Amino acid sequence: MANFKLKTALVAIILSTTATNFQTTQTFAETKPLTFTDLKTSHWAYSDIMWGVDKKIIKGSFNKQNQRIFRAPAVVTEAEFLAMMIRTFKGELPSKQGEAWFRPYYQLATTLNYPVQKDNKLRTRPITRGKVMDLLVSAQGINFSYNIVTGK
Question: The whole model's pTM is what?
Answer without folding.
Answer: 0.69
